[in-house]
Write a structure and sequence with these properties.
The chain has 11 helices and 15 strands. It is of the alpha+beta class and 376 residues long. Strands 1, 2, 3, 4, 5, 6, 7, 8, 9, 10, 11, 14 and 15 form a 13-stranded mixed sheet that branches. Strands 12-13 form a two-stranded antiparallel sheet.
Amino acid sequence: MRTVLAREMGGCSVLGRICGVWRRRPGVRAVPKAPGFDTEAGHQLRPRGSSKWSRPLGGQPFPGLLQLENLSREELVDVLRAAVVDQKGPLVTLNKPPGLPVTGKPGELTLFSVLPELSQSLGLGDQELQVVQASGKETSGLVLLSSCPQTASRLQKFFIYSRRAQRPTATYCAVTDGIPATSEGKIQAALKLEHIDGVDLQQRRSGLRCQVCVKLVHSWGLTPQVIPVKSPSRKDFQEGVKRTLSHFHVVAMGSGCALVQLQPLTVFPSQLQVHMVLQLCPVLGDHTYSARVGTVLGQRFLLPAESTKPQRQVPDEALLRRLCLTPSQAAQLPLHLHLHCLHLPGMRPGEAPMKLLAPLPSYFSRTLQCLGLHQQ
């Protein structure tokens, strides 16, 4: 398949050697260190303002959402061109708006479907872009594209090596409904994909072992769910269960919520959302897995994942007041999970590492302001 769909792939310490000379796009400028999210010295880049197509959804207080159903292919290309953070050599980095799927059914408007037009718009001619790194439909943030298949292949090998070495290459930020019990740590869980009707996806589609195929499952309309597996056996791992691992760090807390930095060290669909549910702190706007967290007399507990169907997240009344939302507006609350930072190497030996930053969506910044969460 021509596109390397590796949503897990973050920064790369060999980019400087394989991608040629660094050049910044017009309108991209260096910015000072953003406290709370960055853990090492490095350069950071910030793109120009948001696209004119990013505006409140139906008058709701969620600015920055993409009204995909109202866009033509040409307008989506304009959105993506305006979202470009940087272009150097064969690599193009953009800040994906939430709500844009990477792949989908034939004829659907997706990132993948407009890559030929985007390549032309960016002056790449016949060098068609490929997806090297991208998050899910509802997740916002950085996307890494390449016009060179060899570069994409080298990046893939590097990301695989980084995961094996347990070296994080991407940093997400999230707002959680609830505060983790500890300020930082690791989340480990064995996970599997299961169809919503209880039929194990690994039994239905025994070939689904890569992220490309997992994304195709969504396009087939099968609605898979991610289920934690307690004490998995060797047979479980042979049938598709995978050990997963993420780092988390609480940056700020207030109003019963937290601003959390997340760094996945493995790859699995919805890994970060499920990991935060296991911490009894679902991501704000998670309308798929948050229902697995129940509350009795103010105490939270996990409900059985196998028997808990997805439903709209229902924040409590105090949180709704802080967010200035009605219950009907809360039902449209977008997922507050954003691929904030990709780690890049210095361009020459001895140079400090570099980082690409994707500014937070407007609705995300509004939520932080309402909750009094500051990046300190």
